[in-house]
Design a protein that fits this description.
single chain
């Protein structure tokens, strides 16, 4: 069972990273410049990805089908807390880390949207994938609130950055909240198809464009002098200890099915590429972020299939 699951997950991860490789080489060959990558990123975050959220939620979500929808934002908060705890443990063991804040950020915040969405689309049957899409969107409702408020403050606080209430409401969060309100009041039933269909078509562009962005961001990272010891510790904490914690938690608490898969998948993801964007935007000294994001994604090609295969195997045995 493990070998069969491993083959499926390896194939899915390979397809995703092939798409990311296109973005990587577009940037490396200067076919997509830094300004173009920045514009593409903004377009996906502010238009394309919100369209995907709106289309999928209006089409597939209802409060009767998902009565415990509020669990998913809460799970995202718990996973972030687990990441911080694991990060603090490693910092306690290694007190020579260059930047404790950047180390914690790399362990606590994962690539929670684009990579899981692409992985689910490549790995699962359509009906199961649509359910997982809903789970991921609801998860992101909590995650985006954290990373774009507290996460930004954590990385930029040394420069006097103040907490801004408006930062909580990124376009994906607004899209999720608006869709949930429309569904709650039943107003989504009055949205004509000639409006919803183009929104869905735009949203369907999210996954390939998002993977181009991930690959492009990796290509634009300036690695500089590589601190092998710190990279080894970060990758161990993020790509091995975190998913092991996830596997233990889902089977100890008897969480199975899509929710169990979501938890293990999120804990197995590499560091968030948005951390590199935040560091660049606030012009902070990049001690660990770029290296952690780069090597985390490269090594996750091997670690993600292993831990997802372990989950599928143990879930079938249970």
């Amino acid at each position: 069972m493990f070998i069969q699951s491993f083959k499926i997950t390896v194939l899915a991860v390979s397809q995703i990273f092939l798409m990311a490789a296109v973005g990587y080489f577009l940037v490396r060959r200067n076919l997509l410049g830094e300004d173009g990558l920045r514009s593409l990123t903004r377009m996906v975050i502010e238009v394309v990805f919100p369209c995907l959220i709106i289309a999928q939620l209006l089409k597939n979500f209802s409060f009767s089908l998902y009565p415990k929808w509020w669990v998913f934002p809460l799970v995202s908060v718990v996973i972030t807390i687990v990441g911080l705890a694991v990060g603090w443990l490693f910092l306690w063991l290694d007190k020579e880390v260059k930047s404790r804040v950047q180390f914690l950020s790399l362990v606590a915040f994962q690539n929670s949207g684009y990579l899981p969405l692409a992985l689910v689309a490549s790995m699962l049957p359509k009906t199961t994938a649509e359910t997982m899409f809903i789970y991921i969107f609801l998860f992101l409702l909590g995650f985006d609130l954290i990373i774009w408020s507290w996460g930004v403050y954590l990385l930029a606080h040394e420069g006097g950055k103040k907490f801004e209430l408006f930062s909580l409401f990124s376009p994906p969060v607004i899209a999720s909240l608006t869709s949930l309100l429309l569904i709650f009041f039943g107003w989504h039933k009055f949205i004509p198809a000639f409006i919803l269909n183009p929104v869905e078509m735009i949203g369907n562009c999210t996954l390939p464009l998002a993977m181009f962005i991930v690959g492009g961001n990796l290509a634009s990272i300036c690695l500089g002098h590589i601190d092998r010891k710190e990279m080894l510790i970060i990758c161990l904490a993020k790509l091995v200890i975190m998913p092991l914690v996830g596997l233990f938690a889902v089977f100890y608490f008897g969480i199975s099915g899509p929710l169990g898969l979501l938890i293990v998948m999120q804990l197995a993801m590499p560091p968030a590429t948005s951390l590199s964007i935040i560091i660049k935007h606030y012009r902070k000294e990049d001690w660990l972020i770029s290296q952690g994001v780069f090597f985390g994604h490269i090594l996750s090609i091997f670690t993600i299939p292993i831990f997802l295969s372990l989950y599928f195997t143990l879930d079938m045995v249970k």
